[in-house]
Hints:
By secondary structure, this protein is of the alpha/beta class. Helices cover about 45% and strands about 15% of the residues. The chain has one domain: Divalent-metal-dependent TIM barrel enzymes (TIM Barrel, Alpha-Beta Barrel), CATH 3.20.20.150. The chain starts with a strand and ends with a helix. The protein binds zinc ion (2 copies).
Amino acid sequence: MIRFGPSGNCEAFYEAGNKQTWQEPAWLKSLNLNAFEYSFGLGQFLSTETATKIAEEAKKNDVEVSVHAPYYINFVNMSDVAYENNFKFLLGSLKNLKELGGRHCVVHIGSQMKFTRVEALSNIKQNFTDFLKEKRQGEYADLILCPEAMGKYTQIGTYDEMFEICSWDDCLIPTLDFGHINCVLQGALKTKEDFKHILQKGIDKLGYEKMKDLHIHFSKIMYGAKGEIKHLTFEDTEFGPDYEPMIDAIIDLKLEPVVISESSGTQAPDAKTMRDYYYSRID
Ligand SMILES: [Zn+2]
Ligand SMILES: [Zn+2]
């Protein structure tokens, strides 16, 4: 089943009088939304008590919760400190994800540092494979890691790099952040065929079943020569991408992703705009 929802608590959530994240699921249900992403971007995890309270509300209101692992993770970095931190931050994210009753954990795989692209990917293969080995034997074996397609050229990586990494293990499904991808492509993501081209490449590499369960991030993003600059709202008319061709491509390919809006401040209203457009096309 396709799902739509926001990343984090947006402005409208607070304007409606809500204060705590456990209030999100009921509020999202009132908007016909059914997904929510909780970000541990800066490394602050939830207490078991808070996560359990959010999980109860999420279950009651049929909202699927995903999490975003801390930004400090970098599988390219070969230092012992980075290696330990990667494990700590990713296992912490999976612990909370399990408590939240969710399935998808979004992760930024790493930045290129001083390495060539090929060397960087080889470092990732070494470090990330170690993590996957540990994950497979532990209590989080059933949870899905979703490496994210990034918006800056110094980051790993492109959607092709994410498809490659996701072919390494059954528990890996890509996060296609089409705002990021559009930055890296300098605004070339315009038509339904542009979106279908990328999604079909994923299906060819990873198979339909995996891609059907895809994680999507969507927002308009300002970009420059180095890629991503800042997230915008659907009000913006200068930068893309537009959501309509993305939704049309999803419908054509019969995918059932979790679609998370990462608009700047208007995540839930923009998620609802996408949701309403989707159902207007299939009814
Ligand atoms: Zn991200
Ligand atoms: Zn994203």
